[in-house]
Amino acid sequence: MPLSSLNGHARADFQLMDALNFTDADLAANRKGRLSDGQKARVRTRLTQITILSLLVASLPLTFVAVSVGILTSSDQLGGASDSTALVVIGIILLVLFALGLVPVLTMLPLWRRARKTLADGVVASVEGMVDFEEIGRKRFALIVLDDTGRELSFKMKRDVHEAFDESARYRIYFIPLLGQVVSAEQLDH
To answer: Which end of the chain is more exposed for a tag (fewer CB within 10 A), N or C?
Structure first.
């Protein structure tokens, strides 16, 4: 069915579902405070992608360290004082590269723990209120929700999600508390 054939409310719902990648079944589970099986699978997939990217980034300096150490230890040309000074400098450089290789892995550990807990618990929270957007880069926006108590919650979003929201409408935003990730939303004042 073409989007233009839908009435205004159905079009707004469809645009939210498309922009945030959720289904009616996901929304039904989120209304009960739970992640759907499909959403759990998407979180696992995203976590796998992030893990692979982190390991690739980490492997570059670590591979350079391993190759350099292999070359240095197999060299028969070491012997003079200048060679030992060069070896110390190279060793320091290799140590720094090794540490840089560990940074992506170590920074990912808290995310992996939170994601595993999220998947085990399957808990979804919600907040109701007016929405606003703040640009935080070329490709990112912050979705800001101001609830009735004046509490403000902010969620990072891709730029194209912005267009699915009507900033003059009230929404219920469903999110994963430990990850701060929006999993679905619904407009309340249809």
So the answer is: N
What are residue 127's DSSP bridge partners?
Answer: 173
Sheet containing 181-187, strands listed edge to edge, beginning at the edge strand earlier in sequence: 152-158, 140-146, 125-135, 170-176, 181-187
CB of 156 closer than 8 Å to CB of 145: no
Beta bridge partners of 38: none
**Which among 14, 17, 20 is positioned nearest to 155, based on CA atoms?**
20
10 Å CB burial of residue 52 (0-12, 13-18, 19+) is: exposed
Tokens of residue 121, six digits: 């618990």
The predicted-structure confidence for 4-26, as pLDDT tens digits, reads as follows 544 555 667 889 999 999 999 99
How far apart (Å, rounded) are the C-alpha atoms in residues 143 and 182?
9
- C-alpha 170/C-alpha 130 separation (Å) is 5
Closest CA to 23 of 13, 34, 9: 13
Report the Cα 105 to chain-centroid distance in Å: 15
Taking alpha carbons only, the member of 83, 90, 100, 88 closest to residue 67 is 90
